[in-house]
């Protein structure tokens, strides 16, 4: 992690304010907040989340507040798909005074001691309070991605979020946050699967069902109306020297599922940006499995659905 350079320390070493301004102008330094700098080359080499975490560290050192919202999520290690990292979010323990202030987005909202934790030397909101704040303030799909991740990694439950919301029943955004809490599911294994769940919400799919295929149980991402298997394809599993083997195994798996009488529909990350196209594929697949006659028999084979944990 790059070293944070504070103006007072630089001045003590003999660097002048004029030199600091020159370093920023020529691209040697980057100013994180007023009076706090970092080597630009080292900063630019970081991921966006790591850059945000470093800026948060600089902000918190000069602010009597707690890191919150998306900034707390980044420090916790929670996935934050499509949530801007333009500002470091802090919450001050009072009812009024929220504003944008330089690199800070200052929120004013009372919090209890048990709603804060210290991680990596930074005081941040707890996982439950962090997701509650995010769910109040960002669009549903983005909030679900973060909530699913927190449920998967930290055991966060609907009750944990609702407890935070119940403490401040008149807080703006509570209604939308309760919708996120009710929808989140720890069985979503990635941001792509969380976004897929939002896309498929009207179909009410079940998650992570298992089917007997070629002498073993095969788990599927989504089962729709007990007739169509849906799967999100992330690129990572197809990368590397064994990509051909993975593709071949995936093809055999799909053939085995079709052999049970199921339709299979797959989509990629790019497809999530055109959900109507994916939904139409699923509708056509469902139509192909619609019972055509009274003698119709449902697909053969059995499923084993893992119990849904809270």
Topology at a glance:
Elements: E1 5-6, H1 7-12, H2 17-26, E2 29-33, E3 36-39, H3 40-44, H4 48-60, E4 66-67, H5 69-76, E5 88-92, E6 99-101, E7 104-108, E8 116-119, E9 122-125, H6 127-137, H7 140-154, H8 158-167, H9 174-183, H10 191-199, E10 206-207, E11 210-213, E12 216-219, E13 222-224, E14 228-233, H11 243-259, E15 263-268, H12 275-288
Parallel strand pairs: 5-7, 14-15
Antiparallel strand pairs: 1-3, 2-3, 4-5, 6-7, 8-9, 10-13, 11-12, 13-14
Helix pairs in contact: 5-6, 6-7, 6-8, 6-9, 7-9, 7-10, 8-9
The shape, in one word, is: elongated
Number of strands: 15
Strand content: 15-25%
What gyration radius follows from the Cα positions, in whole Å?
24 Å
State the helicity in percent bands.
Answer: 40-55%
Order of helices and strands: EHHEEHHEHEEEEEHHHHHEEEEEHEH
User: What do the pLDDT scores average to?
Assistant: 88
> What spatial order of strands do you see in the largest sheet?
4-5-7-6
Q: Would you identify the regions where 5 or more consecutive residues have pLDDT less than 50?
A: 292-296
Q: Count the helices. How many?
A: 12
Going by helix content, strand content and strand pairing, the class is: alpha+beta
Sheet with the most strands, sense and barrel status: 4 strands, mixed
| End-to-end separation | 37 Å
Count of discrete structural domains: 3
Question: Notable features of this structure?
Answer:
single chain, 310 residues, alpha+beta, Endonuclease, Chain A, 3 domains, 4-stranded mixed β-sheet
